[in-house]
Amino acid sequence: MSNTNTQTVSQNQKTMLKPPKRYKVVLLNDDYTPMEFVVEVLTDVFHLPHTQAIAIMLMVHESGRGVCGVFQKDIAETKCNQVMLRAEAAGFPLQCLVEEA
């Protein structure tokens, strides 16, 4: 019969995991990208309702930038890349960036 040692780990000894950092995806205003295109990107890439997409588009237009969403880093970077690729394919200079939340 094998002899097994069982260790009891106290609550203080357990490794506490931190939640992952969150990152904002931010759209920047420009003078050439149509508002309709921005709304389309927000609804397609970020799966936002049309009314929320319009509100964010207006924020970008009026204040120069707007937060599209807050995500884990890899998701934020992927969404930012999707926005940039769509803008480039459509011939628009729309810029998107990722910032720590």
Sheet with the most strands, sense and barrel status: 3 strands, antiparallel
Pick out the low-confidence regions: none
For this structure, the CATH topology of the domain at 34-100 is Ribosomal Protein L30, Chain: A
Instruction: Count all strands and give the number.
Output: 3
Percent in strands: 15-25%
Report mean pLDDT, rounded to a whole number: 92
Could you give the order of strands across the largest sheet?
A: 2-1-3
**Rg measurement, Å:** 21 Å
CATH architectural label of the domain at 34-100: 2-Layer Sandwich
Separation, N- and C-terminal Cα atoms: 56 Å
Proportion in helices: 40-55%
Q: Number of helix segments?
A: 3
- Strand/helix succession: EHHEHE
Classified in CATH, the superfamily of the domain at 34-100 is Ribosomal protein L7/L12, C-terminal domain/Adaptor protein ClpS
Shape verdict: elongated
The helix-and-strand class reads alpha+beta
- What CATH first level of the domain at 34-100 would be assigned? Alpha Beta
Protein name: ATP-dependent Clp protease adapter protein ClpS
Pfam family, one: ClpS
Family: Belongs to the ClpS family.
Function: Involved in the modulation of the specificity of the ClpAP-mediated ATP-dependent protein degradation.
Can you describe what's shown?
With 101 residues, the protein is α+β, with helices and mostly antiparallel strands. The protein has a domain at 34-100: Ribosomal Protein L30, Chain: A, CATH 3.30.1390. Helix content is 43%, strand content 21%. The protein is built from three helices and three strands. It has helices at 35-45, 50-63, 73-90; strands at residues 22-28, 65-72, 95-100. A three-stranded antiparallel sheet has the order 2-1-3. The N and C termini lie far apart (56 Å).
